[in-house]
Amino acid sequence: MLARRHLLVAAPALALGSSVRAFAQTGAAARPGPVLVNVFLRGGMDSLGVVAPVDDRDYVASRSPELRLLTDGDRPALRLDNAPAGFDFRLHPEMAALLDLYRDKRLAIIHACGLDNGTRSHFDAQDLIERGVASGNDAGRVRGGWMTRWLAAIGGATSPAFAASTAVPNALAAHPGTVAAADLRGGMGLPGGKQAATVLGHLYDGHGAFELAARRTLRGIALVDGHLRQPDGKVAPYQPAGGAVYEETEIGRGLQSVARVIRMDLGIRAFTVDMGGWDTHDNQPPRLANLVGQLSRALGAFHADLHDRLNDIALVVMSEFGRRLRSNRSNGTDHGHAGVMLISARRIAGGRVHGVWPGLSSDVLDNAVDLAMTTDIRSVLAELMSGPLATPQAVAAAFPNFAPKKVGLV
Amino acid sequence: MSLDVDPRVLLNKLAFGPTNGELQTIQRGGAEAWLLRQLTPEPDDDCAPRIAGAQVRVKYESKNPDAKVDEDRPIGVIAQPIEQHWQVVEKGAPFQERAFFRSAVAHATLIRAVHSRWQVREVLSDFWHNHFNVNALGESSVAVSLPAYDRDVIRRHALGNFRAMLEAVATSAAMQIYLNNRSSRGGAANENYARELFELHTLGRPAYLNALYNKWRKVPGALDGRPQGYIDQDVYEAARAFTGWTIEDGTGLGPGRKLPTTGKFIYLEMWHDNYQKRILATEFEPYQKPMSDGLKVLDLVADHPATARYVCGKLCRRLMSDAPDAAALSAAITAWTDNRRKPDQIARTVEAIVRSDAFRRSGGAKIKRPLELYASFARAVDIDASPTTALLGALDGSGQRLFGWGPPTGHPDDSDYWLSSSMMRMRWTLLLGLADDAWKTGAPRRAQMVAEKSTPEQAVDTAHRLLLDREAPPGVHRAIAAGLDLAPGSPFNARKDALPLARRMLAYCAMTPAFQMR
Q1: Chain B residues with CB-CB distance to A178 below 8 A
Q2: N or C: which end of chain B has fewer CB within 10 A?
């Protein structure tokens, strides 16, 4: 019996000819170089509730214990070695899995980093960060997102990328090869079987945006879906390695999908994952604990699952901004400025909290209210490109008109 | 001047696609009469009888076997007042009892999109639901508040006055909960609502000047009392103005006192920050009358020229194209501003857009969103649509989660967003599911006309004409013939499977760019 994957792939391939073969060749060239996984925490993660100097006098003075990391009590925060001198930096108590990665020197933390722009708008800040620029004027002068340009600069302008979400994040805007799927467990097949596959394979020969998207989708299905299926055509359940268990959460599903696609060896180098829910204007303590726990456990599972691939993976976690030092009376925090980034990669200065700690007294806060930015997100990403990703030539293209400063990761 | 627009363009832009009936109405009475009639709809819901007959499955387990529920619940209850719905909050009813209200409003919306006579009101209701987005798939009390929000806030004002609508939104349970204003109080106000009021509901992102100025008096125009935009200081102060605006949600107010649990708006003087404020370069004196601080903020933002530009720009993008024509936008802004004290401000603005030259030329400029794809297909092929949970699930999966979009932006309105490979797959799934009646939403009745044709070519042409009013181009013929494995000129209507094939032909013709765009 002919396997279903062949049926599904065959029809569009006939109609699409050379473009599909181009993809197939990329797929055959397994392990083209380290891959980049970009995890974006949408809504503005309260960095001061996740990684903080618990003995900083201004920190203690400005926040109620409930909204602070603590050294004692039922759930003391987790101590981080190698943090900026003079402070007891700690990690949220729900992030034990991340602490393990930190102690293994796999994970680096960069504090007080963010966007070099005064916006406190989610949508402005996300857009600028993902476009890899610092102002709206610059956004008009660059094409696509920073990952789009990184791919183009390493010879992958049209090669596939994978977004583990329904929509394509702006970091990959205008990249013509992005395959998007929030959850691969149901497969990525076409509805309507062979008949629909044949019709669709013939239906789109124009150059309008819709037809381009249709052909891109058919190519993406041809590329991925077959690898998800057993010989009988059913979607094979994913079996993570290393005893990893992914939870049934947005970040758990997202990282599981990414791990699965990485293991397919399709030559994909750019991956994105989204996690929402970080806009904690009210009732923050239980909400934040829940979110950071989900994030930490999902990252723990991802690293356990891909334990034999970690030399080929660079993962970055960022959010559009941190949150206000002082809380509001809804027991939440409003939009702030600088935040925190997490980097997991080979041969970096891991197990260390990087970045210049600006302090939290009113005179050094941004606009007297928010953690000041001392490291531009782009400087961190630039070091990632020069070091673990081994693509130093891409920095200038990814971040035009930007002079990265040394962070010390590599 | 009498309106001269292709009826199909008019119905693709201002309605959820053409039906035979609507096309005939316009051909008989003219586009002008159709538009003017649509801009003054009767207040009653013409779909009420259909909605009263529709049901949603509610099913959940309980430790107490008597409390287990598995039943079809009539959605007509959405017509009840909010305090009735809020009984489920008061009783602490299970999540599914609350989520029911979101499903019920979504079902009613799917019914009206296909069947309502007042299509412009439906299109504008969809616009405003996105403009004033709330997420009923997040906090469950937003779902409970959704019927009142949909009925008394969005639909009531969809073609009315913006300032009146803004106040209805600000005092609604749904928005109070969603943007956290209900817990905001003096001392350290919650900024969530105030920030999105400026950024998303009124002046808009282009008027957010915080990256340029961090003192109110530096904003150009501020010293003349007419600042060009706003900065964070305006957000902080506006948040203070709205402290004490809350809802009756059972919150305790001190020993022995608590608010009732009705979902209705209430102003709590004891939570209000009464001291002086300065917002958009306007002084607010201390200790003003109840609510007057907040109402004054609404006056200021509703009247700001940036609001006219921002909201009219969004209306033009929704009704015309992603990059709207400058003259059309300018006409919209003029109508918006001239009519800002009138009860039909929004209707007049829509009319100005429709009368612009660019509107006439804007056919096919936008990707249909999944709701539009569903409704326009149902209208073209005559599905007597009765939505089901399975259909709503398919729509949710397609990227358009009615009343369930997380961030306060509402669904994106640029075409690119809807073209991810994930959403493209779901668009195809949606059409095949509707054509095959996979979700028991009703069969496409006009498939019969296609099945009666004697050759495959005639059948495909008929299907294409039903959807697009013209014969299928050769490429579409070739694609469908290849997939369905039908030899040219072979007998068609004699086949036993002519009807299912005819339904598929409708779906495939709807997958062409011509039908996917509006």
Answers
A1: 420-421
A2: N
Alpha-carbon distance A370 to A338, whole Å?
7
* CB-count exposure of residue B91 (10 Å: 0-12, 13-18, 19+): exposed
Q: CB B483 to CB A195 under 8 A?
A: yes
Q: Which of B303, B319, B353 is the last residue of a domain?
A: B303
Which domains can be identified in chain A, with CATH numbers?
A: 1-30+187-237 (no CATH), 35-185+250-398 (3.40.720)
Across the interface, whether the CB atoms of A208 and B513 are under 8 A apart is answered yes
- For residues B132 and B194, membership in a common domain is answered with no
A317 has which bridge partners?
A39, A342
Closest approach of B423 to chain A, Cα-based (Å): 7
Predicted confidence band at A176 (pLDDT cuts at 50, 70, 90)?
very high
Residue A27 pLDDT more than 60?
Answer: no
pLDDT in tens, A285-330: 999 999 999 999 999 999 999 999 999 999 999 999 999 999 999 9
SS3 at position A308 = coil
> Which residue on chain A is closest to B398 by alpha carbon?
A166
Contacts 24+ apart (CB under 8 A), A357-363: A357/A53, A357/A84, A357/A87, A357/A111, A357/A112, A358/A112, A359/A56, A359/A58, A360/A56, A360/A58, A360/A59, A360/A62, A360/A325, A361/A58, A362/A58
Is B188 close to A328, i.e. CB distance below 8 A? yes
- Cβ contact, residue pair B419, A210, below 8 Å: yes
Conformational region of residue A237, where left means phi above 0, alpha means psi within -120 to 50, and beta covers everything else: beta
| Residues in A touching B507 (Cβ below 8 Å) | 192
Q: Does the pLDDT of residue A29 top 70, yes or no? A: no
Q: Which of A195, A273, A367 to mutate to test the interface with B (most CBs of B within 10 A)?
A: A195
Radius of gyration of chain B (CA): 25
Search chain B and give the residue with CA nearest A333: B190
Question: CB–CB of A208 and B429 under 8 A?
Answer: no
Number of domains in chain B: 4
| Residue B2 falls inside a structural domain | yes
User: A199: which chain B residues are within 8 Å (Cβ-Cβ)?
Assistant: 479-480, 482-484, 508, 511
pLDDT digits (tens, 9 = 90+) for B318-360: 999 999 999 999 999 999 999 999 999 999 999 999 999 999 9
- Predicted local distance difference test score (pLDDT) of residue B193: 98
From the list A119, A197, A328, the residue facing B211 with the nearest CB is A119
Q: What is the DSSP letter of A261?
A: H
CA distance B390 to B392: 5
User: Are both B203 and B273 inside the same structural domain?
Assistant: yes
State the complex-level ipTM: 0.94
Closest-CA residue of A relative to B208 is A119
Assign A17 a pLDDT band (cuts: 50, 70, 90): very low
Q: Which value, to the nearest 10 degrees, does the dihedral of the CA atoms of residues A28, A30, A32, A37 take?
A: 120
Q: Is residue B464 part of a domain?
A: yes
Cβ-based contacts of B399 with chain A (< 8 Å): 166-167
**Alpha-carbon gap: B399 to the closest alpha carbon of chain A (Å):** 7
What average pLDDT score do residues B27-45 get?
96
Chain B residue at shortest CA distance from A277: B406
Query: From CA B199, how far away is CA B217, in angstroms rounded?
Result: 20
Domain C-terminal end among B303, B319, B346? B303
Residue B501 resides in a domain: yes
pTM for this one?
Answer: 0.94
Whether residue A328 and residue B199 make contact (CB cut-off 8 A), yes or no, is no
